[in-house]
Structure prediction request, 224 residues.
Amino acid sequence: RKEVEQDPGPFNVPEGATVAFNCTYSNSASQSFFWYRQDCRKEPKLLMSVYSSGNEDGRFTAQLNRASQYISLLIRDSKLSDSATYLCVVKNYGGSQGNLIFGKGTKLSVKP
Amino acid sequence: ETGVTQSPTHLIKTRGQQVTLRCSSQSGHNTVSWYQQALGQGPQFIFQYYREEENGRGNFPPRFSGLQFPNYSSELNVNALELDDSALYLCASSPLAGAEQFFGPGTRLTVL
Prediction:
């Protein structure tokens, strides 16, 4: 079982749609959680950190459920520019000073 | 612009050859992490260097080795290349070993 698992996708949605991505992680000792965005043939970039209380950044809302080991990302009012691969990322501490553990990514295509 | 640079951008090698990839960290960052991203997968942690010492390693064989220099730039060396080593190699720097990592644009390695 992979340490971080995501919806396989791809997600094809019209502009203005609301889309949700789900992710589960297997290590209950995981400490920090993130969503990264990766455009085609580019490097990953941090979209937002995910906190236990849930957090919002404009059209993006991230949620964490530690009991279920589940992370989600909600994008409201999708824009064409949201088209990218969204990577769920977990960071564990100790051992390797917090290396990032990535899910496989879920590709989102927003169509006009 | 993250400030992390990598060279070369693309590279083609044949099986059995050796390759060296280079990374210049963002100004003020003393930690460099390397990741391998195969096509359709999320990045996988190779190792991290902090102040010129290896500070953690992922599940990669010893033919993957690295260095960090006094100016905090870094090299990734891969010996005895295999076809499965074909991937995007990403370097990420951070101001501290556990802090947010900023990714470079990557080096795309093709092994024939």
Observations:
- Chain A touches chain B through 20 residues (CB under 8 Å).
- The CA atoms of residues 14 and 111 of chain A lie 5 Å apart.
- Chain A has a mean pLDDT of 92.
- The two ends of chain A are 37 Å apart (CA to CA).
